[in-house]
Amino acid sequence: MTRNERRKLGMGLLFISPWLIGFALFGIYPICMAVYYSFCDYDVLRSAVWVGPMNYTDMMSDDVFWKAIYNTLFYALFSVPLGLMLALVIAVLLNRPIAGRSFFRTFFYIPSIVPLVAVAMVWMWLFNGDLGLMNYGLSLIGIEGPQWLADASWTKPTLILSSVWQVGGAMVLFLAGLQDVPKSLYESADLDGANPLGQFWHISVPMVSPVIYFNLIIGIIGSIQEFVKPFVMLPGGGENRSALLFAVYIYENAFLYGNMGYACAMAIVLFFIIMFLTWLATRAMGRHVYYAGE
Amino acid sequence: MPRTGVQLFRFVVLTIGSLIFMVPLLWMISTALKPIDQTMSMPPKWTPKQWTATVDGETLEIGLGKVPEDATDQTPVPVTAAFQWGVEREGQRIPVRMRRDDAEADTVTVEMSHHWEWTREGKTNPVRRLDHDSENAASAEGQVLVAVIDEDGGLRRQTVPEAELVKIYGTTHDAVNRSYSDSVTLTLPREQVTRAYVRWNQRQEHAYVKTQTLELPYGDIHESVVPQWGNFAGSIKEMGQFGRYLRNTLVLCFLTVLGTVCSCSVVAYGFSRIEWPGRDKIFYVVLGTMMIPFPVIMVPLYGVFRDLGWIGTLKPLWVPTFFAGAFNVFLLRQFFRTIPKELSEAARIDGCSEFRIFLQVILPLCKPAITVVALFQFLGTWNDFLGPLIYLTDQKDYTLALGLQFFQSQQGGTQWHYLMAASTLVVAPIIILFFMAQRMFIEGISMSGLKG
Description:
The structure holds 2 protein chains of 2 kinds. By secondary structure, chain A is mainly α.
């Protein structure tokens, strides 16, 4: 290494030192401790006691754990694809010049930046079984709406609906992606007589496939960790724990029941679930993602 | 298919779609401006209404009962009016509660509420007189033993000159229900106790309000749209420590934005403008940390902060932002890379230190990117819920997000007008910020996802 290189290395490390320190303190150390605690009996008051893989074997026979896993996968399975599709459809509709376009974009985007606690409040009010606007709207078309937040079979759909409302971020990403699609592609498709639906399937979707992939991964990571809305709207997981999501169950174990070791073990499982789903999504989409210029 | 047809179809779909997307927020604002009984009316109405009619020769705000669908101007409909009994005291009308009203008798028995206030050195405190019961009788001539109530609700006993005490009659609902209010029962000549109507939508603020149901011809009732702006003040009062929540949130926003901007720009500089061996490999590690789910590090982090004695303080929520979060480093690095190398080279030849190049050459060019990072950090801190939930223990340290949830869990979901007013207060600054910096929001989002 020349003197100049060494100088540059020193300079580079100096500049990134805030991150290096932060990574050690709030990254590596907590991760290692999380793995260690997951093999321990640990709570706030006592120091950790090594118990081997007991936390993991306990999980196998914990019905609530399986329920939380089921609920979370159910939630992710519907909310992620539904949100993606909705975001893509809105983006495609907004992509070409239209009167009031920036207004429409604003209206679709704003819900995604509203604080989640406030969103939870508003949805609790909208989906109130007796006084809610939702059930009133349904009654106008002759449907008697359910007790959304109190009926075990409707709690998860309520959460999914409320998540679909906040697709603004994904929509803006799609819009940015669509804007990079060369106009000439659509023009020649027009000349060939391709209809809008055909153009959507054969031009828009392949051209924004990297964004679909990105949004899918972000969506999976986000939905598996979903916490605020289920925690606020359905305390304790709601009726019969029907909407107890995994992150909420981890929180409950760590900070309400004092089973911090067990919570860590579940968090590790959560990490592997996310990894697995990301891998799955990558495999499923990998060949279909089209990168311009490759 | 003609192009105009497709355009029209798109326009209609977008209009309906964006209206549906706005419904939750519009309904939140609509509810926030309603009096409580209208939040529970079925069918729901979009605007806060106020009905007026003439009752006993007095034009009055009233509540409207169920109106038959085929009502004409002559149809009698049930309305409710709110009234108080009251007596004159020192030129002031004091509301009273009717205790016994024997139609035969010339006198009626009423209950009246008051409390005492003690002013010294310009500071007024409510006090509770302790000389009513014999055990705590007045200690000396003209001196009274009282319990002084501090601003934070604490009590201390003190002897004060009777002349410094002022009797305040309770006229509001809150005043008569306070723990230090005293009530006296009086028997008065019937003609001294008079009835007066109060405005229907304000009836909950007054003391000892009773309601009565009347029937009036439908045509005599006037309807107007009157938003209850007072709900915002009401919700702030109900939330208890709204001012503290707001202050804590703003302090946190300031510190986290400062921390993120300072640390992330320095680190991003190190990852983009200096070429050192192993740089890009380490940068992959930075990107990798974005994959770590928060629940994994949640418990050990709690342990770290507990060992530092930071639990129950705001520190766990802002100190880490001074150590450069991966996502913002990534964003800024992408932007820094677009600045031509020649600029730094020229400055280096002029003998500038690396830090001066960063401060005086690169940073001024990167204002847009830094603003985006600051904006999203502000948004993130304002909206954060899990962090405050875990680390804050004392209500006076709560942030707005946590305070809102605390308020909701406390009042058990009945006062929807207050809950929606409070939600509106938490949401409004974000919406205003969005309209002020709309372009930056959209660019920021696009930057984060694409130019990777």
